[in-house]
Design goal:
Layout lengths: L1 H14 L2 H8 L5 H25 L25 H9 L10 H11 L1
Length: 111
């Protein structure tokens, strides 16, 4: 539905850097490059949510948010997955939302 789509867009938009947002919106960027970039942002969101689960010391991190199995690629998240994963986080962090500042700090921590 529309609200779910807006929520997903807000997370992808907030996780993307200014350069990535410009490349995704540019008609000069071919579809394969945009798809690859969207997959990278997807992976970052999954890693971010997985880190939150670990920080909250939740007994079981959902498999989608854990590290991929050896030799396997991380699965691409369905649009509804952000919302589904947030359901497990919100009881302990009720105000979690897409936050460019928090995402930028998270990305720096990976470098």
């Amino acid at each position: 539905d529309k609200s779910r789509g807006e929520m997903v867009f807000s997370w992808f938009d907030a996780m993307a850097t200014d350069d990535e947002r410009a490349r995704l919106r540019s008609t000069a960027t071919d579809e394969a490059d945009r798809t690859a970039l969207a997959k990278q942002i997807n992976d970052l969101i999954l890693r971010y949510l997985g880190q939150i689960y670990e920080d909250l010391e939740v007994n079981k991190v959902p498999p989608m948010l854990g590290p991929p199995k050896t030799g396997k690629k991380r699965k691409v998240m369905k649009c509804s997955s952000i919302e589904d994963q947030l359901k497990g986080i919100r009881p302990k962090r009720p105000n979690i939302k897409a936050d460019r500042v928090a995402f930028a700090e998270f990305r720096r921590s990976l470098a």
